[in-house]
Specification:
Largest sheet: 5 strands, antiparallel
Order of helices and strands: EHEEEE
Shape: globular
Oligomer: single chain
Structural class: mainly beta
Strand content: 35-45%
Length: about 70
C-alpha cells in the first residue's frame, strides 16, 4: 500500500464505507494497520483545533512499530 493524501470529506467517506475500520486499537485498511496524519496549513503553535485539518495522509504502519 502506498501513502495517500485525502481531503477531510474523502477520509470521512472511507470510514462510512468501511474501507477504513476503527478497531479501537488501530485503524485498518485492506486488512493492514495504517496511520492517519493531519496535514495543517499553519505552524503547530498557532493551531486552535488540531483535529480540524483540510487534508490527511494515510500511511501503512511498519511491521513491529508500536507507539
Amino acid at each position: 500500500m502506498e501513502e495517500k493524501i485525502l481531503s477531510k470529506s474523502e477520509l470521512v467517506q472511507l470510514f462510512e464505507d468501511e474501507v477504513i475500520i476503527d478497531t479501537n486499537k488501530a485503524w485498518l485498511m485492506d486488512g493492514k494497520e495504517v496511520e492517519i496524519i493531519a496535514l495543517h496549513d499553519v505552524e503547530p503553535k498557532y493551531l486552535q483545533d488540531v483535529t480540524n485539518a483540510k487534508f490527511y495522509k494515510i500511511i501503512p504502519k511498519e511491521e513491529g512499530r508500536r507507539y
